[in-house]
Model the fold of this input.
Amino acid sequence: MRVLLGSFWRSVAYCLHPRVIALSLLPLVLMVAGAFALGYWFWDRAVDAVLAWLETWSLVEFVLGWLDSVGLGALRTVVAPLLVLVMATPLIVVLALLLVAFFMTPAMVDLVAQRRFPDLQRRRGGGVLGSVGWSLWSTVLAVLMLVVSLPFWLIPPLVLVLPPLIWGWLTYRVFAYDALAEHASVDERRVLMARHRVPLLVMGVIAGLISAAPSVLWASGAMFIALAPLLVPLAIWIYALVFAFASLWYAHYLLQALDELRREAATPPAPPPAPPAPADPAAHSVPADRIIDVEARALPSPPAS
Done:
């Protein structure tokens, strides 16, 4: 718990480092360009398709008609764009996570190592190809879990539990691997990820819950179309900073855990306790003169004449 909390506050402070802020601009530029390109080509068609799908549901059409009757018909134009953004949010989150992992994490791990663990040996247990393969495979598994769990999102308590758990698992898998790829050997990485599995998953779930905050701005871009050019890039940048914080948290935590693991391995085992010394029979023997004296006292006294 001490290492977990200490790593948390260090990561918050490192997010204000100029190098981290500068690194977050590259994922921001890539994601904003991609978001506006996709919006330009597919936004109208996606909104029309969702609106046509909603009109096939009698209950939805009844609710929309009721909104028209009470003077809230303008909300009809908001429902479809909002649903499109809700469906696009998982894709945005996954892309933000992968872009941070590919373009920011190696530099941030190096920053943490230089400032806190300059003597930590780099054993390079995972290369660039290994990191890319691990991240893509973990992403495929997370997307499959999202698809399988979609029916359960209709249950109110589960919609608050399942997405953070899935995002937390994906965050833990990607950032834990990348934090150890340069410094740990393969065996050390397996030992650390097995020994610290529960704290690492908790860190991922917390990061997943924090990543839900930009969704408010992301949804506001649909409700306030005039402010979308400002709100959408701001939400994307917050996504990048949230995952940069998560990457720094894993780097601080796991590099310290790796340093402690190597210190444990370098400490020689304590010598076994020495066997007890054999008893000295001479130490417990009684002198012969004392035996004679005791025997003499035990003899009856001669009768008086």
